[in-house]
Design brief:
The complex is a heterodimer of chains A (564) and B (344). Chain A is mainly alpha-helical. Chain A is 75% helix and 1% strand. Chain A has two domains: 10-41 and 333-564, Orthogonal Bundle (MetI-like fold); 51-319, Orthogonal Bundle (MetI-like fold), CATH 1.10.3720. Helix content of chain B is 41%, strand content 19%. Classes of the chains: A mainly alpha (564), B alpha/beta (344).
């Protein structure tokens, strides 16, 4: 029911939007100003537009992202089919697979790929032993594309599966009954109805690959560097802020238009999903056709290799030292408080920092997200839409570009008067990046919240404070927990903005892994990565439990978690 | 309420105690490149200096020389740095250092060992950076993977398709070793020719590593049989008991001379201590560690060299260097042209 006017509390909107204005829009404005006006002779914007290197990088980035999206679609589509149509053994494992992009920080994937697909990695050693050949996968364009497919295929699979599930099975059954072969049925009936969903998943994969940072930085080197990596190189290595700012601005423009395109496609798709009359029958995984079963086995083996290989290699390497013996040395290194010169910081200090940043930014993101989600339903429709879009915008901006804008703002711009220091700047950045995720969970929750309960409690004499703590909060605990888990995990795995903001003495877990990978100290990197995965799994286990609780209460859709 | 207040108080107390820990001794923060710690004499220097002066020496070395310098500069320009000393500043970075005003002039009176350093190594006329070692950058190969008759002898030979994916290069923007090779190719092919050369060389590069340390680990791990490294690598392999498994490619019978220096950060508050550190670095005691840990030639000729080192660490016949003034003027353009040439 629509809340009445007595509940209008517009001042609540001021907090989250003020925060975003200060820590997101203001820094971006500074970036705009720098790239428009700084240079002496001509505007850096114009210089960049005339720079062949910029256009070359843009072409390369688009090419890389397109191929990555294509590979993600090719690998993800069969998985989407399986998820939608088959009864699966070990459903939790499959579920885990579909959240890979959110549970595995990119730098961990990079490490896994080096260990498994590297020239002397487990995959090539096995190939060498079996067939006497090596597959030069890593440090190549194909290697980067495969890594992006690893990351994004689950996204395509999920969007496809959701559309497929929503398809009325009677259509396919009808075609089959009229004598069409399964392939013809798929081609003429199913595919025309699900491809928009696959396409929207692929578009998301394109966007993620376009702005992929840790993977390209680690696996690409100068030869395959994309725009995102170049912004980092210009600012952090060559100290050419002007060029960096101009590149970052063009990237931001590109990302905003791409995200706008994605949202358009997605909204159109969403309106097309009918509410299906009959429930789709889930068949057993293996059917009667031999050829089909063989294809399926090959595909499953491929998935096991692609996902099990790198993750297994990380876990294995963390336990086995360079001499091939089982030891906990790597963990001992990672859990030491002493300063380690090769990461410029104490390893345990990095763990503590990560948790500190994650907890602080989680609390802030959930608080600000709640304030916004509670206020939005009370505003006019158009107002609410505008504010929500403004709060979701950080999703659509390159993290490296945003990190640079933030760096500039807190050191040289207006934010320097707040004397944030690197800690404050990193936490603020993580809040900005986590807020959209928190909002995506909290917004539907508070939209459908039954405010009659609040009114009832009020009319029975409870004070507003009591109502909030005794009615609203308990009823929202599951949604809050999910929102918290998302913002927590964003902060824990964030590396792109953090690497721009980090100072000596402010290392985090992903940064430490990056430094250890650069120094090629793989065992220690793997141990840190295992710790990181463990933290993420724990968080997502809590979220999963909360999600179940949420469904059992029937107060939120069960799709919120899976669709994010 | 009481419980939370207790919690608050104990947290505050813990923080106070925490910040009080380890503040007793003066700290000397030394920035350097990664391999100076993982290979080089950092540990011995740290121990030796701490014993002499009762201070806490902290090495910070999470990246290659170029990245560490960039980090130092960006810290100094935006709020200050903790660093007192920078060890391992290659002569190729001198122009960047001067234009950004990173170091203070070194007071020769406080560094008695400076007198022993030969004139031809003193690459900084302003005296902000003093040399502590030098070496020759060249390409090194794995003698077990490439036969003697197949050895490339010129830069041109390296572009041959038989070396596809066989070379590990290093990014000149982040590493002084990679920078040296780029300068050598510019010297060899000229300003107009080097871009084309790198474009032709690119297919043969397995990867372009961020720093020497990463590149060399890939090389010793067997990822590729050729790497950009130092002419002293044969000495390293022999003296570490590996046998002569690494050889120096006789590219035009030359190597690119690299001099590494040390500077005192302009904003350092431990100026006297920093001078003492520089003096210690140049002392025969530390200089004698340089050959067998950092695998470079010491700057101080008073340092005694091991016999095997003298036999195996032969300098190349010719040494190449680029004119510092030209480098100063054109470096940014060259680096950009290089990046464009190697980009896919």
């Amino acid at each position: 029911m629509p809340p009445n006017r007595t509940h209008r509390r517009p001042w609540l909107v001021v907090l989250p939007l003020g925060f975003l204005a200060l820590f997101f829009y203001l820094p971006l404005l500074g970036l705009l100003k720098e790239s428009l006006f700084t240079a002496g002779d001509s505007s850096p914007l114009v210089t960049t537009l005339k720079d062949p290197y910029f256009w070359h990088l843009l072409r390369l980035t688009v090419k890389q992202a397109s191929l990555s999206a294509l590979a993600s679609a090719v690998i993800g589509l069969p998985l989407g089919y399986i998820l939608a149509n088959h009864r699966l053994p070990m459903p939790r494992l499959w579920r885990a697979l579909t959240v890979v992009p959110f549970v595995l920080p990119a730098i961990v994937v990079a490490l896994g790929f080096i260990l498994f697909f590297g020239h002397n990695g487990y995959f090539n050693r096995a190939l060498m032993a079996l067939f006497g050949v090596r597959l030069p996968l890593l440090y190549s364009f194909q290697g980067i594309i495969l890594a992006h497919a690893f990351y994004n295929a689950p996204i395509v699979a999920r969007t496809t599966a959701v559309a497929w599930e929503a398809l009325d099975p009677a259509l396919e059954q009808g075609a089959r009954a009229l004598g069409a072969s399964p392939w013809t049925t798929f081609r003429k009936v199913t595919w025309p109805m699900i491809w928009p969903a696959t396409a929207s998943g692929a578009l998301l994969a394109f966007i993620f690959s376009f702005f992929s940072f840790p993977l390209v930085l680690t696996l690409g080197g100068a030869r395959y560097a994309t725009l995102e990596v170049e912004v980092y190189t210009q600012v952090r290595v060559l100290l050419d802020n002007t060029t960096g700012a101009a590149f970052a601005l063009f990237e931001t423009l590109a990302s905003l238009s791409l995200t706008y395109l994605y949202l358009r496609v997605e909204t159109r798709n969403r309106s097309q999903y009918g509410s299906y009359a009959r429930k789709r029958q889930h068949r057993p995984l293996f059917g009667r056709s031999w050829a089909g079963n063989i294809l399926l086995v090959i595909y499953l083996l491929f998935l096991a290799l692609l996902y099990g290989g790198p993750i297994g290699a990380v876990v294995y390497d963390s336990l086995v030292g360079e001499n091939g013996k089982l030891s906990l040395e790597a963990y001992a290194f990672v859990l030491k408080w002493d300063h380690a010169a090769q990461i410029g910081h104490s390893p345990l200090g990095a763990v503590v920092n990560t948790l500190r940043f994650a907890f602080s930014s989680m609390l802030l993101a959930v608080f600000l997200g709640t304030a916004l989600a509670v206020s939005l339903p009370r505003l006019s429709r158009r107002g609410a839409q505008l504010w929500e879009t403004l709060a979701m915008a950080p999703l659509a901006v390159s993290s490296v570009a945003f990190g640079y804008a933030m760096l500039r703002a807190y050191r040289l711009g207006v934010l320097r008067y707040l004397s944030l220091g690197p800690t404050g700047a990193i936490i603020a950045a993580h809040v900005v990046l986590g807020l959209p995720f928190a909002l995506r969970v909290l917004r539907p929750h508070f939209q459908s919240f039954d405010y009659r309960l609040v009114q009832a409690a009020r009319s029975l004499g409870a004070s507003p404070r009591d109502v909030f703590f005794r009615v609203t909060l308990p009823l929202s605990s599951a949604a809050l927990l999910v929102a918290a888990a998302f913002s927590f995990s964003i902060s824990v795995s964030e590396m792109s903005a953090t690497i721009m903001l980090a100072q000596p003495g402010f290392s985090t877990m992903p940064l430490t892994i990056y430094h250890l990978v650069s120094a090629r100290e793989f065992s220690a990197a793997a141990a840190m990565a295992v710790l990181l995965m463990w933290v993420m799994t724990l968080v997502f286990a809590i979220m999963e439990a909360a999600g179940q609780y949420l469904i059992s209460l029937r107060i939120g859709g069960d799709h919120h978690v899976s669709e994010l | 309420m009481n419980r939370s207040r207790l919690l608050l108080v104990s947290v505050l107390l813990a923080t106070l105690l925490w910040s009080g820990v380890g503040q007793a001794k003066p700290r000397l923060v030394v920035y350097t490149y990664d391999s100076f710690v993982s290979w080089g004499p950092a540990k011995q220097i740290e121990d030796g200096f701490e014993q002499m002066y009762d201070v806490d020496v902290v090495f910070v070395a999470p990246a290659s020389s170029g990245e560490m310098l960039a980090r130092l500069i960006s810290e100094m320009e935006t709020g200050g740095t903790e660093a007192d000393v920078f060890v391992g500043l290659s002569d190729t970075y001198l122009s960047r250092v001067h234009s950004r005003n990173v170091f203070r002039p070194i007071d020769a009176a406080k560094v008695p060992n400076l007198k022993a350093i030969p004139e031809n190594l003193l690459f900084d006329a302003k005296g902000h950076v003093v040399p502590f070692d030098h070496g020759y950058i060249t390409l090194v190969y794995d003698t077990r993977a490439i036969k003697a008759e197949d050895l490339p002898k010129t830069f041109e030979d390296l572009t041959d398709p038989r070396f596809k994916n066989k070379i590990i290069a290093i990014d000149p923007r982040t590493s002084s070793v990679g920078h040296a090779l780029l300068m050598w190719t510019i010297k060899h092919y000229g300003e107009d020719g080097f871009v084309d050369y790198w474009r032709r060389l690119a297919p043969n590069l397995l990867t372009i590593a961020g720093g020497w340390s990463a590149a060399y680990k890939m090389f010793t791990n067997g990822d590729a049989p050729i790497v950009v490294s130092y002419a002293t690598d044969t000495a390293y392999a022999v003296m570490e008991g590996l046998g002569p498994i690494y050889g120096v490619l006789p590219l035009h019978d030359a190597g690119y001379l690299q001099i590494e220096g040390v500077g005192i950060v302009r904003t350092s508050k431990n100026v006297d201590l920093a001078h003492a550190f520089v003096d210690y670095l140049l002392s025969p005691e530390v200089q004698e560690l340089i050959p067998t840990t950092n695998w470079m030639y010491p700057a101080n000729p008073q340092a005694k060299l091991p016999e095997e080192w003298v036999r195996y660490a032969q300098p190349p016949k010719n040494s190449v260097r680029i004119d510092p003034e030209e480098l100063d003027r054109k470096e940014a353009t060259w680096l950009r042209q290089w990046a464009m040439a190697v980009s896919m």
